[in-house]
Amino acid sequence: MIKRYAESLLAYLFPRRCVACEAVLAPEEKALCFECFAQLDPTHYEQRPRNNPVYDKIRAFYPIDFAISAFYYDKDSVIQKAIHALKYEGIKEVGLFLGMHLGFLWKRNVSADLQQKPWHIVPLPLHPRRERERGYNQAFLLAVGFSKITQYPITQALKRVQYTKPQALKGQQERWENMKAVFSAAKTIPSHMILIDDVLTTGATLMAAIATLLSHSPCTIGIITLATPRSE
Ligand SMILES: [Zn+2]
């Protein structure tokens, strides 16, 4: 009784708000209000996981099995605001909620063949120092949500060994140089891994991770990210 009173008092004093438009959320809304959720701009790449710009971009360098980015990452878009809330405002609920959404997209659209492979989910790790600063790894939260729906286990197959500055500050060449020795692989890694991360822009970070895993032992790798910029 007292607990419920305390909870409703807290909800009254600090109402949960939509991370995109700041409207007060109804109890059944999570992270995003229904209106903003409806404005998410889907790529539908989950319907063609081996025939889309993100797949092509990575496949030009590494033999991956599939690649999916769920939403277009436009400036001031709902997904851009949601990812900002997840990374810089400490709102972990966004990660779990959108991770689960990725799981539903996967279950509803991806072929049974692809779904039945013995996947392990590998969240792209942050450098331990960055994770301490943030208090959590946003990719891990996405992985937890995705795992909840798909039942694939989460495996920390990678470690981030190099602390790199935020990429926005760096030029393309410098960025590539920095990414070469970014990750190390765990002693044993699963045969099938889905790498999960928030945004794929150049793909350099994910490619560094893929290179690390492929040079460790033969394995099948797929990519899932929440968002990617619109390709021309
Ligand atoms: Zn909203």
Our count of helices gives 10
Q: Which regions contain 5 or more consecutive residues with pLDDT less than 50?
A: none
Got a strand count? 6
The helix fraction, in percent, is: 40-55%
**Biggest sheet: strands side by side, in what order?**
1-6-5-2
Polypeptide structure, described:
The structure is a single chain. By secondary structure, the protein is of the alpha/beta class. The protein has one domain: Rossmann fold, CATH 3.40.50. 42% of the residues lie in helices and 15% in strands. It has 10 helices and 6 strands; from the N terminus they run αααβαααβααβαββαβ. The strands form 2 sheets. A 4-stranded parallel beta sheet has the order 1-6-5-2, with helices on both faces. A two-stranded antiparallel sheet has the order 3-4. The structure holds zinc ion. Zinc ion (ZN) binds next to helix 2. Zinc ion binds next to helix 2.
Descriptive key words:
232 residues, alpha/beta, Rossmann fold, four-stranded parallel beta sheet, two-stranded antiparallel ribbon, 6 strands, binds zinc ion
Strand-helix topology:
Elements: H1 2-13, H2 34-39, H3 53-59, E1 66-72, H4 78-88, H5 93-109, H6 112-115, E2 120-123, H7 128-134, H8 138-150, E3 158-160, H9 172-179, E4 183-185, E5 192-199, H10 204-216, E6 220-228
Parallel strand pairs: 1-6, 2-5, 5-6
Antiparallel strand pairs: 3-4
The protein binds zinc ion.
Summarize this structure briefly.
With 232 residues, the protein is an alpha/beta fold. The chain is built from ten helices and six strands. The protein has one domain: Rossmann fold, CATH 3.40.50.
